[in-house]
């Protein structure tokens, strides 16, 4: 391919273009779209939504521009048109950034016949057909199709069109091992192993394959990015990523190849909570605090089993999903499959949400999200099943997340591989929902954090290895416990009894005991620790006549400890996060909130939002100013989509602790666009918000003497 000439009109594009790409439109073309494309309609949508960036289908599986590359399958309706080029030009006329989408996951029959070496193959060596489209074949990401052919496609697009990036979707393969000859030879040459088989799960080649696949995919990221930057230095090739970000790749190879992230979590399905989009912003920030992230949102309903790509999600669901995402730092991106619209009910909800973002963006873009509480984000996955390694949150994490949202405690994430005292600066409480395998270095960081005055809430077996693992670092000494019995369960009919009076067991008036867990860890408490709850000794759940307490050892269930530094630790010796997410017993949510609240110390939280309803709170802090975003998630469908209405919140009170010596402050309600009266009480600036439909941001400012 020929590189751009210096006099090219786009030769001086900024390498930091992505920082101003904050509201995305994505249009995914279908084969028949070139014949029906209404360019003016789409430019109007982008104009109305104040979109400043466009992701548009270009090529790969199907080309939507007049490509010259052999076997680059053109849309059958392309003719002499160039729908990709027309919309690129239109978007640029609106001052927008543009990213070209390519999809290398499959090829058509003519390419498959001419290049059988491109195809993914099953264990018998047979090409793997596409599950949905006859006459189409899946490709092998370790083949020359990805390595060379897709590189040429990217070069052609970047050479011809004024784009800022190339975006690859479905680039990682079909979700299984490809047994193509070239791949098998390469794996054997690189590792000395033969490719593992799915019917032999204990094959020692599995972890070797997982690492090898990770490196091969990482090499693709580097190769593609290098190729487009050789043509235009500001252009980036940014393959699609999910919740794992770069954690399932070779991070030292690819971390600098992702200037920003596009997380493909397009909507809720199953029993996902309304706060799910906000978590994407937090999780990304926990690993890459300084890099922008966009949340890809489908205008249609999402389900892992059902596909209705030409339908639309309820508008209330769409608005809430987008708004909760950007309130927590995940920039909005909507995606529409097919340029022709059979149902336009998605447009106004997207416009409404995007206009809210536009109103908040000047403030959000300059104030970083802050919190006094952080959850440790532990990487999940399996070395023997690399396709399951998507960083899906565990039920332990889900339970803690939901409890903190309900308690209106603002919190952030810290990725476990980034855990350091520097990353914990400003954090007062670190929460471990389930971190069973901490390294010696991570344990040392946590110990130093508490020694410096920080606090820790650890659940279940977090930082507490089995009694047989004598060579592993442990948090037992810090937490004031000693493991005397490894995790057991599942246990039915378990309870924990209150022990004396302590802030961690407040709010349970009238109860001698509350529901315990299903998996229990046997611990003893140190002399200087307080036992706040004890396990009731086991007794049967059936027959009903046998359901009564028996004598036995009542081991500690919740242990609290105050350290000489002023830091506090709480250990909850059962699967409280998991069981709360599974059963949603209010006592478990209260216990989690109490533990974190006590760990915050006598002064408590620096930001408080009081009132009725379910809200997601995000705090942004600057010099002499704080912005508190309150997202209304109150809805009968908050724990399972889709929302069907937006139920306004009743009045809320937002309180922010002022610096010592500050006696006055002023406030603005950013969404309402009005000033708000401020009352200073006991060192807190208090603002009453009369009602919140979906989002309000209280912006407080003061002058430090």
From TrEMBL:
Keywords: Hydrolase
Domain of life the protein comes from: Bacteria
UniProt GO MF annotations: hydrolase activity
Entry annotated with the keyword Hydrolase: yes
KW Zinc-finger (keyword) present: no
Short name of any one Pfam family annotated for the protein: GHL6
InterPro entries the UniProt entry points to: Class_I_gatase-like, Divisome_Glycosyl_Hydrolase, GH, GHL6
SUPFAM superfamilies: (Trans)glycosidases (SSF51445), Class I glutamine amidotransferase-like (SSF52317)
Protein name per UniProt: Family 10 glycosylhydrolase
């Amino acid at each position: 391919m020929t590189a751009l000439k210096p006099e090219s009109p786009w030769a001086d594009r900024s390498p930091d273009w992505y920082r101003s790409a904050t509201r995305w439109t994505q249009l995914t073309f279908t084969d028949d779209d070139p014949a029906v494309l209404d360019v003016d309609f789409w430019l109007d949508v982008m104009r109305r939504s104040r979109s400043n960036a466009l992701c548009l289908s270009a090529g790969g599986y199907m080309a939507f521009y007049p490509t010259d590359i052999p076997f680059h399958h053109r849309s059958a309706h392309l003719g002499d048109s160039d729908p990709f080029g027309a919309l690129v030009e239109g978007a640029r006329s609106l001052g927008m950034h543009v990213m070209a989408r390519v999809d290398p996951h499959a090829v058509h029959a003519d390419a498959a016949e001419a290049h059988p070496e491109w195809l993914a193959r099953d264990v018998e060596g047979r090409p793997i057909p596409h599950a949905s489209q006859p006459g189409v074949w899946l490709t092998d990401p370790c083949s020359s199709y990805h390595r060379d052919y897709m590189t040429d496609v990217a070069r052609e697009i970047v050479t011809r069109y004024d784009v800022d990036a190339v975006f690859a979707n479905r680039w990682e393969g079909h979700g299984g091992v490809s047994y193509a000859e070239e791949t098998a030879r390469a794996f054997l040459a690189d590792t000395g192993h033969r490719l593992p088989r799915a019917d032999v799960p204990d094959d020692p080649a599995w972890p070797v394959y997982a690492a090898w696949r990770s490196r091969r995919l990482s090499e693709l990221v580097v190769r593609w990015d290098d190729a487009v930057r050789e043509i235009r230095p500001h252009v980036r090739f940014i393959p699609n990523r999910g919740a794992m970000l770069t954690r399932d790749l070779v991070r030292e190879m690819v971390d600098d190849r992702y200037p920003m992230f596009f997380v493909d979590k397009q909507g809720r399905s199953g029993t996902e909570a309304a706060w799910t989009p906000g978590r994407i912003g937090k999780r990304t920030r926990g690993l890459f605090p300084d890099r922008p992230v966009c949340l890809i949102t489908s205008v249609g309903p999402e389900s892992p089993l059902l596909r209705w790509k030409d339908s639309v999600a309820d508008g209330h669901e769409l608005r809430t999903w987008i708004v909760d995402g950007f309130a927590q730092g995940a920039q909005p991106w909507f995606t529409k499959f097919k340029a022709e619209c059979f149902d336009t009910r998605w447009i106004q909800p997207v416009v409404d949400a995007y206009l809210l973002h536009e109103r908040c963006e000047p403030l959000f873009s300059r104030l970083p999200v802050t919190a006094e509480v952080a959850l440790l984000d532990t990487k999940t996955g399996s070395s023997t099943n690399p396709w399951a390694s998507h960083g899906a949150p565990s039920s332990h994490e889900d339970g803690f997340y939901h409890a903190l949202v309900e308690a209106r405690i603002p919190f952030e994430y810290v990725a476990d591989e980034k855990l350091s005292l520097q990353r914990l600066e400003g954090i007062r409480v670190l929460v471990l929902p389930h971190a069973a395998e901490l390294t010696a270095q991570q344990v040392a960081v946590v110990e130093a954090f508490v020694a410096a005055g920080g606090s820790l809430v650890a659940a279940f077996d977090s930082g507490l290895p089995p009694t047989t693992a004598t060579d592993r670092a442990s948090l037992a000494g810090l937490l004031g416990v000693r493991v005397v019995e490894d995790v057991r369960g599942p246990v039915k009919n378990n309870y924990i009894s209150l022990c004396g009076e302590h802030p961690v067991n407040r709010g349970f008036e009238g109860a001698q005991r509350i529901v315990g867990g299903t998996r229990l860890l046997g611990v003893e408490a140190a002399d200087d620790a307080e036992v706040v709850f004890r396990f009731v000794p086991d007794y049967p759940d059936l027959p009903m006549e046998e359901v009564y307490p028996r004598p036995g050892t009542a081991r500690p269930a919740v242990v609290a400890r105050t350290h000489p530094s002023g830091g506090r630790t709480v250990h909850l010796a059962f699967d409280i996060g998991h069981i709360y997410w599974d059963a949603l017993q209010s006592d478990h949510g209260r216990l989690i909130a109490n533990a974190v609240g006590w760990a915050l110390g006598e002064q408590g939280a620096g930001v408080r939002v009081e009132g009725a309803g379910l809200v997601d709170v995000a705090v942004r802090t600057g010099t002499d100013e704080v912005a508190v975003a309150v997202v209304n998630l109150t809805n009968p469908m908050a724990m399972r989509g889709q929302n069907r209405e937006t139920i306004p919140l009743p009045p809320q009170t937002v309180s922010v602790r002022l610096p010592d010596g500050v006696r006055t402050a002023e406030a603005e309600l950013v969404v309402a666009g009005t000033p708000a009266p401020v009352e200073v009480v006991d060192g807190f600036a208090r603002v009453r918000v009369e009602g919140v439909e979906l989002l309000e941001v209280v912006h407080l400012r003061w002058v430090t003497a």
